[in-house]
Design goal:
alpha/beta, Dihydrofolate Reductase, subunit A, 9-stranded mixed β-sheet, two-stranded antiparallel ribbon, 31% helix, globular
């Protein structure tokens, strides 16, 4: 068992005893100089193979893996557990305007249909096109930042979801932390140096908050450092 697994299981049990929403894990990889991607809109491989397998193992213990549409547009991820044994979670894309391409791999690959979550004002024709392409689409009430997270959690609970893994990108991570909807954090820190004027970084305020967060499980995986543990930072405590 990896160090994060026992920490995650304990945190999930404690959190579910006091909250009405699904348990939320925020996870991402970043370079040594704090970048999530070398260039906005283009995929960047940051984690080495061992850390990638760890991420897939983390997916396998969650009911849902969630990304924003920006991640779909830039990375075209599969969001499966193909590198490790174990079930793939339900794939959810937070996409207020339904910009997910009909040809995105998350839509076209075999397996359980992905759930595309848009706002009620989204184009109904676009919703039907995504459904015809193989996705499930639900339109929820908006907030000033896009899809209401409260509405999202209510919908996921109605589907029987008890745990959500949020993989990004930067905008989605910022929202979940800012709205106090993160219970556990797992960060892969790579020795790569990616800083340049076009690089994508975490929100500055979130970076400062996470710098004060103390991981309870730390381990090296190949060249990468994994830091994981319950989140008790300034923006934690999740809306309950």
């Amino acid at each position: 068992m990896l160090n994060w697994q026992s920490e995650w299981e304990q945190a999930k049990a404690m959190t579910q005893a006091r909250t009405a929403r699904p348990f939320v894990t925020a996870t991402f990889a970043m370079s040594r100089d704090g970048c999530l991607s070398r260039t906005q809109g283009e995929p960047t491989v940051i984690s080495a193979n061992a850390a990638l397998r760890m991420t897939h193992a983390l997916r396998a213990v969650h009911d849902v893996v969630l990304v924003g549409v920006g991640t779909v547009l830039s990375d075209d991820p599969l969001l499966t557990t193909r590198l490790v044994p174990g079930p793939s979670p339900r794939r959810v894309v937070l996409d207020s305007a339904l910009r997910t391409p009909l040809t995105a791999r998350v839509v076209t690959t075999a397996g359980e249909a992905p759930l595309i979550v848009g706002c009620t004002q989204a184009d109904p024709a676009r919703a039907e096109a995504l459904r015809a392409a193989g996705a499930q689409v639900v339109l929820l009430e908006p907030s000033c930042e896009g899809v209401s997270l409260a509405a999202l959690f209510e919908h996921l609970q109605g589907l029987g979801v008890s745990s959500v893994m949020v993989e990004g990108g930067a905008t989605v991570l910022k929202r979940f932390f800012a709205e106090r909807a993160v219970d556990f954090v797992c960060i892969t820190e790579s020795p790569l140096l990616l800083a340049n004027p076009l690089a994508v970084r975490l929100d500055d305020g979130l970076s400062r908050t996470l710098a004060r967060w103390s991981a309870s499980a730390v381990e090296h995986m190949g060249p990468d450092l994994i830091r994981a543990g319950p989140y008790a930072g300034e923006a934690s405590g999740a809306a309950r």
